[in-house]
Amino acid sequence: MAMDAISVKALEMVAREYDARLGPTLLAPWISHTIDAAHVKPGDQVLDVACGPGELTLQTARRTGAAGHVTGLDLNPGMLALARTKSSHITWLEGDAETLPFADNQFDAVICQFGLMLFPDPAKALREMYRVVAHHRHLVVAVFGDLAEQPVYRALAEIYDDVVSDTMGNLLRVPFSMGSADRLNRVFSSAGIHDTEHVRLEEAAIFASLKELALADIEGWFPFAGVTLTPAQVEAVIAEVQSGLAPFQRADGTIHFPVSVHLVTATKRTASEAHRPLAI
Questions:
Q1: Is the pLDDT of residue 277 over 50?
Q2: Which residue of 3, 88, 112, 116 shows the fewest CB atoms closer than 10 Å?
Q3: If you write DSSP's letter for every residue of 27-87 in order, what string do you get?
Q4: Cα 118 to Cα 115: distance, rounded to the nearest angstrom
Q5: Residue 280 pLDDT > 90
């Protein structure tokens, strides 16, 4: 049954908070890395899977230019409602990454930034994304590094364990759950994708204050995941963050810390090319 307009509007409000609080601080630094890894060129047809509020999609469209076209696909109608307000020249499509409604070899590049760890069956989603990318072109997937590589978020998860519940702490761990090279390699291998290049990158995440760092998850990530905290829980978490993470705060009150990301680029070959080098 189609979702009613009121429900979509509520999801769009959640998407706006997610976009405002997590987009500039945690997601935007990786946009150019993802587009570059996909070798996107003017005139290309590109698919952005799990496009969310569409910032990566928009930047990709600028790279393809008027001669190309970009499609953004997401399962969340609220994210798409927000994305549609940003551009009418992009095709915004509600759909499931595990059953893509596209022909084989349809796109010159397929990109997926911070979505793989949220799919029920990551290997199935990878097979679908690989299916629709053209031969000799690229599928690029970005995931956050393991929580062991993210001291600030590791500390935040432990705060939620102690102040709210293990359930909330584990929910904060979800975005980092695909972040080991071994696990990524296993997932790609189980999807039948073997011609890959794997790099680990770091960029700085910058928040205006410790309170803003806490609110990024309280008002951005958790509502997106369908969970809200009580006012008392919010107050307790912010107090604990301001105390426990004070060593990460600079003299001007801002928070700067490195965030690691794993970027996997898969080159699609024909069967006859599978065992010989491919010129790119």
A1: no
A2: 88
A3: IGGGHHHHHHHTT--TT-EEEEET-TTSHHHHHHHHHH-TTSEEEEEES-HHHHHHHHTT-
A4: 5
A5: no
Rounded distance between C-alpha atoms, residue 122 and residue 56, angstroms: 20
What is the per-residue pLDDT across 104-153, written as a single tens digit (0 to 9) for each?
A: 999 999 999 999 999 999 999 999 999 999 999 999 999 999 999 999 99
Please check whether residue 23 is in contact with residue 55, taking contact to mean a CB–CB distance below 8 angstroms: yes
Residues 97 and 73: beta-carbon distance below 8 Å: yes
State how far the Cα of 279 lies from the Cα of 126, in Å rounded to an integer. 23
The CB density around residue 83, as the number of other CB atoms within 10 Å, is 25
For the record, the structure tokens of 21 come out as 């609080």
Distance CA 118, CA 255 (A): 27
Class at the top of the CATH hierarchy for domain 5-270:
alpha beta
CA dihedral for 7, 218, 79, 173, sign (positive or negative): negative
- pTM (predicted TM-score): 0.93
Q: What is the pLDDT of residues 175-209, one digit of tens each?
A: 999 999 999 999 999 999 999 999 999 999 999 99
Q: What is the number of other CB atoms lying within 10 angstroms of the CB of residue 81?
A: 20
d(CA 218, CA 168): 10
Q: What are phi and psi of 129, to 5 degrees?
A: -65, -40
